[in-house]
Structures are given as structure tokens and as C-alpha cells.
Amino acid sequence: MAEQINPWSSTPKMDINRLIADFGIEPFAPVKEKIADQPVFIRRDIVAGHRGYDAVADAIVQKKPFHVLTGFMPSGHPHFGHLMVMKEVVWHIQQGGKGFISMADREAHAVRGLSWDACDRYAREYMECLYALGFSGEIYSQRRNNALKDLAFEAATKVNFSELSAIYGFGPETELAHAVSVSMQVADILYPQLVAGVAPTVVPVGIDQDPHIRLTRDITNALRMFLVEDRGTHISIRVKNAPEGALDAVAKRFCGAKKYEGHIDLPAGHTADEVDAVVREVERAFGGFGFLLPSATYHSFLQGLQGGKMSSSVPDSLVWFDDPDKDVKKKIMGALTGGRQTLEEQKKLGGEPEKCSIYQLNRFHMQDDDKELAGMCRACKAGELMCGTCKKETLERVRNFLREFREKRDEVAHMVEW
Ligand code: TRP
């Protein structure tokens, strides 16, 4: 049976290839070819899977409008584990996307029990980090966003408790506010299309967030008034839930449309996408949303410095952006590596960078130069580069990064407001 993904669990044990097979997530490799100038997370296959990313890749290539949105639960200080998703958002904005960030204070309050004040304090830190990395666009707090709350309510009309228990394992003991926070996240993902126009939307997330993406895509379909299908010989437009007059309005938009009770057939010569775009316009004219299915990218997780997962409950597993220098040193120098038991063995057999938290830290964030990274990998495997030296060099890079990052954070701190 397919393993369930629980986005709120602290120990998601996930094999990305199995998830691709079990849940119908698409592997990223084929769509990767469309991107000419690939950032680190694409060219090094850190982004491993996606849903519907072709629409976004095409928008990038054709310089058409698209949106990028992700969310952060402000339930603790931001740390290195958040850096990937932040970089993905910023990169998409640089490619022409309109940027949005949800500060998921309602989720933090409902699921983690944080006070609103604490949410605001942590949210501020996330916002500084995002601006320091070059974010521009809209950052909002869920609880202060009325349009979002209305959209969440509308989305909630399309989901029932048996679906929530099938997707998230919710039971009779689950608080209603937890379920409401799910509809908030669905609304987050659709929000850019509500306020900035219907367009492909990419949601960069860790693979643990896929249940939310699946649910949102289901709800997006459920919110549609019509179903457009390519039947080979013709295009069929079928009413799902449309008000009086909407079907006539659709029929008027096409020559040669044959209208029946509850559906229209169009002769060949149109693509389903073209027809769907017109139908979505009519939906909006009749008070609907006409949203496009949102897309997502899934990145693999940066391994913790102690070998397992990065987790705020294991303080030495990760570096916080605000860690004092001595803690950064202790964590990096004490990290679990892919080195051997003894120096002799390491010289003879070489290290194992695939298993090494320090190598992975370089691969994700600390070494953007592919030649340098390949050199490091080769020297490690050949038994020429010892862990002590490698850690020292990495610590230097981490310190430089943190120094610049903190300077930038100070410079942008004034931009943070609700
Ligand atoms: N649930 C996400 C988390 O646990 C945060 C989040 C809220 C989010 N809204 C979102 C992520 C919208 C992506 C898109 O971190």
C-alpha cells in the first residue's frame, strides 16, 4: 500500500522515487530540458519531482505571465532547512514570475499552538530572510487577509471530512481549526490567480507538502463550472455546475458549436487548451473563478548535520541563521560525515560524499561552482581530502555566507511590514 504523507509529522521518512511511483508525482528530468539557464537546484537534481510544471516552464521560455507562491509556518526561527525553498521562489521571480509568500500564522496557531504575538515575531524573521535573498512581491499574514479567508471558505465547500481523513488521517479528535488551516493553505495556493490574474502558478515545496497540492488541484477542478475534454474527433464541453445562461454564453463564443442538454460539442480544429481558456473567461463573467490547475515542484531535503533529518528538536542537526559563531563552528566541526573509521582506511577507501552531511551542505548551498564541487567529490572519493580539512573549508564558506546574509538582513529590515 502507498505510504501516507503527513505534512505535520516531525519525521517524514520519504524516498522521493517511491513517492513519484506511488502518488503520480512526475519526475523532474524531462521538464528540466526546457530550462536554458539552470540554477543549482535544477542542474543538481535537488528538485526531483513536480506536478504540472510544464505550464510554468513554458511560461518562462515564452516570457508569459506566471506566479510563484509558497508559505512558511512562523512557528520557530528560520534556518538552513528553509533556504532552498526561499531560493526557488526568488529564482522564479527573476525569471519573470510574480512573487507571493503566505505567512501561515493560522496554521502555526491551530497546529502548533503558537500565540499570535509569537507568530508575528517569527514571521518578521522569515520576511527579513526573504528580502535579504532578493524577494520582491506580496507577503501576507493569513489571519489578516480577508480575500484569502473568503477564498478559503469557498474552497471548503468542495471538501468533506472523509476526504480529509483519507488524505491526512484526520479523525474525530482533530480540531476544527486544523481542518480550517488546510482550507487556508488551499486558498494560499489559489490566491495569486485571485488577485493577479489567471496564470500558471508554481508552488515550490518539500515533498511532505504534496497532500496539500493534491487536495488543491482536486478543489480547483471542483470549483470549475464546465469540464472541457478532447475526445479525439471533437472537443466536448460539459456543464458541471454552471448558472443559467452560462452554457449559451459558451456556445456563442465558438463557430460550429453543437449545443445539447448540458453539453456542447465543438468540431475538430481547436485545441482543448484554447477552448478551456475561453470557457474559463465565461466562468469568470458568470461569477466563477476559472482558475488554472496550480503546479508544484518538490525538492529533496537537506540532510541533518547529525546524519538524520534536519529537525528543530535536534539542535545540532541544523544551523539557524542567528546561531552564534561558536555554535556554528561546533555544529559544522562535529557533523557526521561520509568519512571512514580511521585515517588509514579513509586514505585507502576514500570517503562517501553521497552519505555526507557536509558534502550535501556544499551541494545544496555552499558551493555554487560545479567544477569546484566535482573536484571536492573526486578528492573525497580518492582518499585525498580528509574530513577535518573539508569541514574547515566548509565552515569558512558558511561563515562568509552568514556574514553577508546578516548584513543584507539588516539592510532590508525596514521593508518588513504587514
Ligand atoms: N504547510 C506549510 C508548512 O508546514 C506552510 C504553508 C502554508 C504553505 N501555506 C502554504 C506551503 C502554501 C506552500 C504553499 O510549512
From TrEMBL:
Record-listed E.C. numbers: 6.1.1.2
Keywords of the record: Aminoacyl-tRNA synthetase, ATP-binding, Ligase, Nucleotide-binding, Protein biosynthesis
Principal EC category: ligase
Listed GO MF terms: tryptophan-tRNA ligase activity
Family under the similarity heading: Belongs to the class-I aminoacyl-tRNA synthetase family.
Annotated protein name in UniProt: tryptophan--tRNA ligase
The species this protein was found in: Methanocorpusculum petauri
